[in-house]
Write a structure and sequence with these properties.
The chain is α/β, with parallel strands linked by helices. The protein is 45% helix and 31% strand. Belongs to the anti-sigma-factor antagonist family.
């Protein structure tokens, strides 16, 4: 699994690649532990390039989101589509995760929250 990072006006953009499954979920959690140790307080998690997610991936996202709340880090999810969107909807996590349609909308919302 590849993760691309960009910083835009104090918002950390995290672009996930490929699949979030049993083989990648732990790596993703460890990666986010490092991000949480940094000074970033606003994060956009972009799913544009994610093609698949399984229950391990869902568990990793839940852990990441819960940890961000504990640390008072604002995290928004964007560009969820296809089978990933279906899994999020079937698990009713679209009511739990803060999901926006585009990365730009998420950045605007986080910038307005200052």
């Amino acid at each position: 699994m590849e993760v691309k990072l960009k910083n835009k006006n104090g918002v950390l953009l995290v672009e996930l690649q490929e699949e979030i499954d049993l083989f990648h979920a732990n790596k993703l959690k460890l990666y986010f532990n490092k991000i949480f140790e940094s000074s970033h307080k606003k994060i956009v998690l972009n799913f544009q390039e994610v093609t698949y997610i399984d229950s391990s991936g869902i568990g990793a996202l839940l852990n990441i989101f819960k940890e961000s709340k504990k640390r008072e880090i604002k995290i928004l999810f964007t560009n969820i589509h296809g089978s990933v969107k279906k899994v999020i909807e079937l698990t009713k996590l679209d009511d739990y995760f803060p999901i926006l349609r585009t990365q730009e909308e998420a950045i605007e919302q986080l910038e307005a929250a200052e």
